[in-house]
Amino acid sequence: MAQRLSDDEVDSKLSGGWEREGDEIVRVYEFDSYLDGVEFATEVGEVAEEEFHHPEIIIRYEEVEVRLTSHEEGGITEKDLRLADLFDDEF
């Protein structure tokens, strides 16, 4: 199991574009069309499945919100930060 990170650890390691909201990290990606966002959400889902760590994905018109937390640990862990970095590297 991953260890829950302290507030200072999260703040120092959080990638640009991501924000902290309570026990989650959140990023909103913008797109030119709804279907571009749907395609992105599918790709995010594939990466998440490979890592066996699944975000909450909210698809809206021309934007997709991704939320990460580690429910079992009750907050943000290295798994969340790693997945955020993978999303940023891929997309």
Oligomeric category = single chain
Mean pLDDT: 94
What helical percentage do the residues reach?
40-55%
Overall geometry comes to globular
**Biggest sheet statistics:** 4 strands, antiparallel
Q: How far is it from the N-terminal to the C-terminal residue, by CA? A: 27 Å
Q: Under CATH, the topology is which? A: Gyrase A, domain 2
CATH H-tier superfamily: Transcriptional coactivator/pterin dehydratase
User: Any guess at the CATH architecture?
Assistant: 2-Layer Sandwich
Task: Supply Rg.
Answer: 13 Å
How many H/I helical runs?
Answer: 3
The run of helices and strands is HEEHEEH
Which properties best describe this structure?
3 helices; four-stranded antiparallel β-sheet; 42% helix
Notes on the structure:
With 91 residues, this protein is an alpha+beta fold. The protein has helices at 7-13, 34-51, 78-90, and strands at residues 19-21, 24-30, 56-60, 63-68. It has a 4-stranded antiparallel beta sheet with strand order 1-2-4-3, covered by helices on one side. The longest helix is centred in the middle third of the chain and has 18 residues, at 34-51. The model has no long low-confidence stretch (mean pLDDT 94).
